[in-house]
């Protein structure tokens, strides 16, 4: 029989996220605090999907509806399953709460905590592969630490076999010296797990139902219990305080930048470059210092971004140059040149080859190919046709104090410097607007609109004035 014909073992993950975290000192539930732009819990749920886990069940309790609402918004309703633990009586009790959701499920149950965002899909795949290959009933992911601190210790027998886990608070002085710890990530055979959970007793220092006690119970029942040692010790780093939030954020940021560099992106100064989780960057793009790429952002190939490019929720084409700018919820075509000091606001779209220079703001506007707006311009609720030149200081007056109005400029038009375009108004293809015009009426194609007072020149006026002033004060006229 071909290997491909063997169905993969079914895996369901139970993510423990019911606990309250007082040490964060926050109104926001801990698992919703973002790390590199993504809620902590969402990192874990993403990683599970990356590891090929089919079902994801979050056990929620503290601020359950807030957590659920945030996750459903993030992943889309129906993508996740939830189990409720109204009282936090321990990790074993939390997993018990997921039993009803998994009725009839006979595959592998992966159990993990909701607050360790650095856990990687590779580590999970390794654990699942080992668990499947050895046919163990339970496999715990462990790590060896120089200082095992408050973590549960892995107790092994003479032959190295796993006997069980003892919590630091319940451990003897001798057991506390053990360097191998429980990461809190397990793979279990579903049926055996839920059967063993029913036998848990809160006979421990915290009076809780410990998930960790399941290993000893399974072993006593003659089941195989194994451990996989993770060489990556970051998997255990949980967020408990805002200090840890920043530390874990820094590690994740470094990891994201490293992956980008290995994929062909140049990052001149990784210590001062910020790319959020989920952002994609094309090959041979260069990120210069103080560049921040956030949210659902996609960057094309061959771009040079920064110094100081801030891009959020945007799609950037190939060979774009953007420095010292803010770009939010916008689509930027190939070969555009943006900044320094440009602000592209939500709902804006730039076709290819657009040039936006110093102190230019674009808001809810469509800018055609090769449009140039080099200096001091505001285009709001505007459509600008391809090839049009927008002179320095052009302002669309899109708001009349009650409503926003549209400005439509055709192709290859020329808007003279310091023009004021009072919307709603349209300017036809190839039309010219004279410098310093206040345009209040539509300009037809190929026309020239001059909307300002004609210049009056008074010959010798200044000389006459100097003479008058001198007579008044009785002194010599100024030269
Ligand atoms: C747990 C393990 C410990 C391991 C450590 C790794 C137990 C008894 N101990 O300890 O061996 O070294 O994780 O980080 O399992 N939670 C609930 N409901 C509860 C209790 C906890 O949902 O009733 C959630 C928490 O929100 C958290 C996770 O389970 O996300 C782990 O709980 P926590 O109290 O942090 O476990 P530790 O005491 O750190
Ligand atoms: Ca605890």
Task: Provide key terms for this protein.
Spore Coat Polysaccharide Biosynthesis Protein SpsA, Chain A; binds uridine-diphosphate-N-acetylglucosamine; binds calcium ion; alpha/beta; 479 residues; nine-stranded parallel β-sheet; 16-stranded parallel β-sheet; 2 domains; UDP N-Acetylglucosamine Acyltransferase, domain 1; 39 strands
Brief sketch in words of this structure:
By secondary structure, the protein is an alpha/beta fold.
CATH hierarchy: architecture of the largest domain: Alpha-Beta Complex
CATH homologous superfamily designation of the largest domain? Spore Coat Polysaccharide Biosynthesis Protein SpsA, Chain A
What is the global morphology? elongated
β-sheet strand percentage: 25-35%
According to CATH, the fold-level topology of the largest domain is Spore Coat Polysaccharide Biosynthesis Protein SpsA, Chain A
Mean pLDDT score: 96
Q: Which ligands appear in the coordinates?
A: uridine-diphosphate-N-acetylglucosamine, calcium ion
Assembly status: single chain
The termini sit apart by: 106 Å
Structural class, from secondary structure content? alpha/beta
Largest sheet: 16 strands, parallel
The top-level CATH class of the largest domain is Alpha Beta
Give start-end ranges of low-pLDDT stretches: none
């Amino acid at each position: 029989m071909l290997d491909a014909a063997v169905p993969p073992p079914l895996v369901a993950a139970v993510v423990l996220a019911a606990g309250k975290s007082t040490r964060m000192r926050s109104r926001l539930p801990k698992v919703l605090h973002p790390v590199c732009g993504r809620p902590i819990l969402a990192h874990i749920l993403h990683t599970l999907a990356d590891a090929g886990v089919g079902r994801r069940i979050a056990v929620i309790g503290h601020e359950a509806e807030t957590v659920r609402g945030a996750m459903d918004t993030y992943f889309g309703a129906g993508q996740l399953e939830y189990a409720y633990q109204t009282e936090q009586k321990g990790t074993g009790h939390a997993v018990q709460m997921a039993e009803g959701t998994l009725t009839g499920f006979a595959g592998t149950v992966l159990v993990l905590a909701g607050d360790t965002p650095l856990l990687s899909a590779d580590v999970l795949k390794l654990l699942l592969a080992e668990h499947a290959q050895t046919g163990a009933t339970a496999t715990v992911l462990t790590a060896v630490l120089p200082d095992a601190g408050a973590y549960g210790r892995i107790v092994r027998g003479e032959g190295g076999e796993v006997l069980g886990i003892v919590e630091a608070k319940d451990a003897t002085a001798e057991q506390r010296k053990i360097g191998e710890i429980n990461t809190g990530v397990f793979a279990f055979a579903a049926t055996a797990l839920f059967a063993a959970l029913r036998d848990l007793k809160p006979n421990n220092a915290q009076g809780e139902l410990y998930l960790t006690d399941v290993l000893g119970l399974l072993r006593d029942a003659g089941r195989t219990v194994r451990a996989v040692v993770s060489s990556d010790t970051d998997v255990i780093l949980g967020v408990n305080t805002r200090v840890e939030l920043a530390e874990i954020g820094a590690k994740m940021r470094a990891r994201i930048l490293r992956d980008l560099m290995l994929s062909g992106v140049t990052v001149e100064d990784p210590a001062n470059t910020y790319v959020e989780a989920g952002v994609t960057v094309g090959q041979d793009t260069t990120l210069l210092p103080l560049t921040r790429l956030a949210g659902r952002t996609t960057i094309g190939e061959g771009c040079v971004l920064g110094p100081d490019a801030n891009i959020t929720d945007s799609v950037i084409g190939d060979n774009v140059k953007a420095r010292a700018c803010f770009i939010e919820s916008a689509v930027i075509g190939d070969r555009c040149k943006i900044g320094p000091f440009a602000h592209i606001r939500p709902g804006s779209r730039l076709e290819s080859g657009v040039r936006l220079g110093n102190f230019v703001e674009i808001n809810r506007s469509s800018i055609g190919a090769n449009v140039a707006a080099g200096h001091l311009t505001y285009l709001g609720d505007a459509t600008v046709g391809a090839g049009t030149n927008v002179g320095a200081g052009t302002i669309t007056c899109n708001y009349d104090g009650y409503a926003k109005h549209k400005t439509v400029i055709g192709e290859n038009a020329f808007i003279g410097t310091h023009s004021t375009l009072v919307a709603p108004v349209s300017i036809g293809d190839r039309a010219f607007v004279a410098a310093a015009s206040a345009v209040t009426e539509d300009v037809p194609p190929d026309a020239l609109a001059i909307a300002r007072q004609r210049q009056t020149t008074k010959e010798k006026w200044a000389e006459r004035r100097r003479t008058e002033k001198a007579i008044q004060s009785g002194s010599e006229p100024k030269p």
